[in-house]
Amino acid sequence: MTTAPSHLPRRAPAPTGGAWYIALALLSWGTLAPVAFLHAAARQRTRAAVVRAAAYTAAVPSAYALGWAGLGGSGTVVLLVGIMIVALVHLGRLRREIWPPGPQFPVRLGIPGPGQDPAVAAALAGRARREESRRIAATDRLLARELRIGRPDLPHTYDDGGLVDLNRAPAAAIASVCGVEPATARRIVEVREAAGVPFAAVDDVFAWAEIPLDLWELVRDRGIVY
């Protein structure tokens, strides 16, 4: 049996941890989903994560109260199912943030394989570095800050593959790394400063700062929050 050449891209593995997040919400019909969000808040330690956990914690008893007061038992079931569906979407994202998959590409991607364009090899190597840097930021924030991951505006020696911290970097750095207009980058900074809380996930930026849909992939590829 032959193996794929090391210079070819590999499928990104699924996150190995946090499967109980999904199981808990699904098997309990949403009633135990707050437990998963409380755990995530304890791991992420951001105000946004705490607010999200508190919202789900309050939503479950509220569903019981509103359901019985309005439509009876059937109303409670409908509300709980709604909570479960929304929670599953959020928990799927949180699971990847807290237990990110390993790098999508092997380190050897920095070396062109037979017939591979050096520019392609360099781009794939950069992608692998970004994935590794995200893993570090998700599991060891102090190390990530010491390495200055996502801070191209500060002196650093660690190669993070070209990331920018959407919670701390200045607008000029965000515009340069993400390839967005300066006005868009300034809006991201203005929103985070006005909110007074850090973004809990890169996707939060899209809603809070009203980023155009055609820029989402650019920001997802280069943006990081931790």
Care to give the gist of this entry?
The chain contains ten helices and two strands, in the order H-H-H-H-H-H-E-H-H-H-H-E. It is mainly α and 226 residues long.
Short descriptors:
226 residues, mainly alpha, 2 domains, two-stranded parallel sheet, 2 strands, 60% helix, elongated, disordered N terminus
pLDDT averaged residue by residue = 83
The count of DSSP E runs of length 2 or more, i.e. the number of strands, is 2
| Strands ordered across the widest β-sheet | 1-2
Whole-number radius of gyration?
A: 20 Å
Helix-strand category = mainly alpha
Tally of helical runs: 10
What is the string of SSEs from the N terminus onward?
HHHHHHEHHHHE
Molecular structure report:
With 226 residues, the protein is mainly α. It folds into two domains: 19-98; 107-224, no CATH class. It is 60% helix and 2% strand. The protein has ten helices and two strands; from the N terminus they run H-H-H-H-H-H-E-H-H-H-H-E. It has helices spanning 19-27, 33-44, 47-70, 73-98, 118-139, 141-147, 171-178, 182-195, 202-208, 216-222; strands at 164-165, 223-224. It has a two-stranded parallel sheet. Helix 2 runs antiparallel to helix 3 and helix 3 (47-70) runs antiparallel to helix 4. The chain is elongated, with a radius of gyration of 20 Å.
